[in-house]
Amino acid sequence: MRLGESLVESGHITKSQLEKALNAQLIFGGHLGTCLIELGHIDEQTLGNLLARVYGVKYAHPGLLDDIQPQTLAALSQASVEKHMAIPFDLTKRTLRVAMVNPGHVPSLDELFFVSGLRIEAWVSPEVRVFQAMERYYQVPRRVRYITLARSLDEKKSKARPKATQAAVATQAAAVGGAAVALPRLVPIAPSASSDDEEAAGGTPAPMPPAQPPKRKPSAIPGDLETRLRLTAEEFCRAEDIAATIKMLLDHVALDASRCIFFGLKGTEAFVRDVRGFALDAVTAHKVRFNVTTEPLLTLLSGDSFYRGAVPDQPKYHAIFDALHTPPPHEILLLPVHRHDRLAGLLYADGGTQGRIEGETESFLRVMRKFILSLDHIDSRQRIRLA
In this structure, what CATH number is given to the domain that contains residue 349? Predict the structure, then answer.
């Protein structure tokens, strides 16, 4: 059972509160539990206990992450901790207890076992606490959103302590300062300085040439998955602007999907920025627009960071395909793009009307992580030029 469904069934939140949290998650990213805490719909302890029940593991409460021994921390590298969002907090004999955001992700558990040489016992912890520990012990920087939320949770805990303890904490709290938990504002992908990149700057999208079907002949596929990811990563490193980076992303995805679209964002309206496999002229592309807060297709994400599966056979899910002049495909992939804690775009892919998407979902997630890093790289170079 999903976390949201479990919370509604247990009476901790209402369906209306769940819908608001799911919408907030789509816009701002992060774990559904983070959005529920930010909206004030649930407290940290309740969330931790519910996560433990959903995943069938134990809850790693914040106290277990307060004073981790150096030899335990040494069991995992910074790279492994950051990649799998996992904090080792106890080492007993040959068993390593690890607090994770997603303790049910088998590939992560297998890799942690391989790199540590230890039996992995996965516990669950809200992502705000995992990120807090990643920064404290492994110097992995947190974003402002998680700093603010952790500070708010810690301040609530200090107020709940006995008065004698509150006096001892007061000086530290004053030095750190307080801030109300606030959801970040919604903005599109940061624009490049190029005057030609009008969509990124919030102007009228540039005319789109008719899309050509992707080349999917075996001879055109450059090696195995790892080779392809490495080559795409090198291309990302050489990209000079956002449009080029999006093109490289779709070129990579088109090797495993018959059709794909990258939707940019203007406010809450999504529009076609680049496309493969759909023969869209400028007029048709301009009409393929939707509001991300009300588009039924995006409800398929339902609290997850991606959706891969069938399109439900209901009219409300078919409007976007009507705009694309195609029947709903057998299988689709939806991957929201979040940057700086806000929705910045959306990757859509499918296997065509007769086929399915090739490749593992993890490969799409990996190339998306590289894509987002490449956007950050472009931003950094632009700031250097303008400094």
Answer: 3.30.450.40
Q: Starting at the edge strand that comes first in sequence, how are the strands of the sheet with 86-92 ordered?
A: 86-92, 95-100, 119-124
pLDDT at 27 over 60: yes
Beta bridge partners of 33: none
Range of the domain at 300: 218-386
The pLDDT of residue 162: 58
Res. 67: pLDDT tops 50: yes
Q: Output the six-digit token pair for 38.
A: 């930010």
SS3 179: coil
CA distance 114 to 193: 44
Residues 342-378 have pLDDT tens digits of 899 999 999 998 889 998 998 999 999 999 999 999 9
Q: Which residues contact 179 (CB under 8 A, 6 or more apart)?
A: 148, 151, 152
> Which amino acid does the sequence have at 52?
A
For residues 222 and 116, state if they share a domain.
no
Helix, strand, coil share (%) of the chain residues, nearest 5: 50, 15, 40
Taking the whole predicted model, whether its pTM rises above 0.90 is answered as no
User: 308 Cβ partners below 8 Å, 6+ apart?
Assistant: 331, 332, 333, 334, 357, 361
